[in-house]
Amino acid sequence: MKVSDSRDSLLQVIQQYQRGEAVKAASEKGAQPPGALREERVDISEKAREFSDIKAALKDRPEVREEKVQALQDRIDQGRYRVPAEDLARKIVGENLLDLFA
């Protein structure tokens, strides 16, 4: 380890601390020191609030809906689960086309 590297790091830490102290002192006085950043303000739009509300509501929901999984499993076990060949082919071809253009 070079002595100069640790000295440079220490100098950077001291300078950051001094800038923080200058900002703190200026905010207590109500003035801004030279080179200090102005206070930033964030306004959240109505859409962002709606998104936040929806996200909170979904947080409590399980990721896997066990009742749906069990219903499908029962249909498979009883031989009543059928997927039309046309739907299956459409899905396979569609995914392959998407892979080609991705």
Q: Can you give a write-up of this model?
A:
The structure is a single chain. Helices cover 69% and strands 0% of the residues. The chain is elongated, with a radius of gyration of 30 Å. The model has no long low-confidence stretch (mean pLDDT 78). The chain starts with a helix and ends with a helix. The protein has two domains: 1-35; 46-101, no CATH class. The protein is an all-alpha fold.
Report the sheet-strand fraction: under 5%
Number of helices: 4
* Low-pLDDT runs: none
Overall tally of structural domains: 2
The helix/strand series, from N terminus to C terminus, equals HHHH
Structural class: mainly alpha
Provide a short characterization of the protein structure.
The chain is built from four helices and no strands. The chain has helices at residues 3-29, 46-59, 66-77, 85-101. It is elongated.
How does the SSE layout of this entry go?
Elements: H1 3-29, H2 46-59, H3 66-77, H4 85-101
List keywords for this structure.
mainly alpha; 4 helices; 2 domains
